[in-house]
Amino acid sequence: MSMDSLELQKVLFDKTPLRSELVKIRNTSSNRFSVKVFRNHSFELVSSAISPWLLYAGMDIHFEYSDYDDSFTFFDFKDTEDAYFLWIDLLRYEVEDLKSFVLERVQELKSKTRKPILIATTGRNLSFGDEVFCFSVESLREEVGEPFFDLPRESLTGTKLSNKTCLAAARELGTKYFPALFRPALKAVAVDLDNTLYRGVLGEDGLTGIVLTEGHKALQDKLVQLAGQGFFICVVSKNDPRDVEEMFEERKDFPLRKEFLTVIKASWQAKSQGLRAIAEELNIGTDAMLFVDDNLGELAEVAGSLPDIHVLHAQDDACKTLRALSCFPGLFKAFQNREDALRQSDVQANAERRKLQEHLSHEEYLKNLGMELRILLNDAAGKTRIAELSNKTNQFIFTYRRYTLAQVEALMASPGSVIVSLHLRDKLSDSGMIGALALVREGDTAVLDELYISCRALGRGIDDIIIFAALQAGLKKLGVDKLRVNFVRGERNRPAEMFYRQYLSGYVMPALFIPRPQSELLTILHEGERDE
Question: What is the helix (H) or strand (E) element at residue 135, kind and residue range?
Fold first, then answer.
């Protein structure tokens, strides 16, 4: 998100915008998508106000509408849209088991398409776990207050929802849910310190002179929450590193403690240099980072040096910053998984791994770590993480398939395809699921449809070992011995391209797969298939 977005940030988050203000903002984004809306009540009061929020997310959506249909039969369905959206008023039903009804309708739609599917429910609180990508409009009740419904106007508007509720739903859908359908999530949030995380300047006001206002405390709480969801929280500040170290040690009132921070870069260099160093250390692109600073000059310097990075302007009133951060596109996670809790400790362990590499030979290094690779086939319990990882990986990815959950489920269900997931741990940390590959059988050949490895797992010197082991397991599952590899060169998948050229370019045409003997430096466990 560029500097141009900062003016939009001010309009959208300095106060609650009116509908009359929202409809005047023209969406100029060239990133356009088409979404079919299946509904049993009107969505127009939401869609007419959603455009500015989508613009903030760097995208635009054209909505196609079905007729009103309580049964959601998907009559005369044509799979021509980029995604599908079910807008459901649950108060219209007297069905005893509404959850089963909704799940059955979603499964029916999944049988017709592999495109992303989102549902939004009104009138009842239903929990679907990770079975359904769902937005509950009921979650807005506390924020909206009264009137949540506007029943007297339902005959005119086509929905029980009030104008106030529809505006809040437009914001949530436009900045969180619809972007999550089409875009990879961000991976890191880098924050300034002075007048961003607290009021005051550390170097001038001293350790006890900086003030943690209620707004700044809430902002730090939000960053702690994001850390718990698996985002890397980093600091980039023009301060003496000793002062910064002391501040995080001594200010016990700070919710954001050092244990929640992945990297701290405190120096007098340009902040773009610190951000570039963080990206290299975390092995991620700057396009996967958000930078938060109160100084517009600093934001301009960063945006000019790192044009792909996302920026957010921290306000004097930290509550405004919190509102913008809470709705920042790419920071929303519908589902939590085991890897989210592991990510911070695994990155910190990478620093220890680098130290070992400096003093040991490659063989000694691998033996010292005691690495263990677990290979699972069609791991239904991990399908959400498999889909998520395919949409987050940018550097080590072969074809940019960006699987939806429905596509993962279809590949697992078909006897002619297999998804092989990879789980890695060593004596320093458990990395959890670090990658996956999908193979599709064509006659006597397995075609590599996609292969992706998390940036956290790269650079340990075992890429070839784990990938060849995964390929061998997948070919064995499909009962074939030939392999053909698909590869698409992208803007940032240079590591994958280098691996492809070195190890897999001989399989551009179907060729007999040559397995490698299992390395004594890595324990490989084949755990087969696992149900939910």
Answer: strand 134-136
353 membership: H or E segment, kind and range: helix 338-359
| Pairwise CA distance, residues 150 & 20, whole Å | 19
Structural domains in the chain, sorted by start = 14-182 (3.40.50.1110), 188-326 (3.40.50.1000), 341-530 (3.40.630.30)
- Per-residue pLDDT tens digits for 86-108: 999 999 999 889 999 999 999 99
Residue 164 CA neighbour count, 13 Å, CB half: 12
Long-range contacts of 11-17 (CB under 8 A, 24+ apart): 11/52, 12/52, 12/53, 12/56, 12/171, 12/324, 13/320, 13/323, 13/324, 13/327, 14/315, 14/320, 16/167, 17/52, 17/167
Per the listing, tokens 């000059």 go with: 297
Q: Residue 3 has what pLDDT?
A: 47
Write down the residue that tokens 């240099």 correspond to. 273
The strands making up 372-379's β-sheet, listed across from edge to edge, are 511-512, 482-485, 445-453, 430-442, 417-425, 372-379, 523-530
- Span 42-65, pLDDT tens digits: 999 999 999 999 999 999 999 999
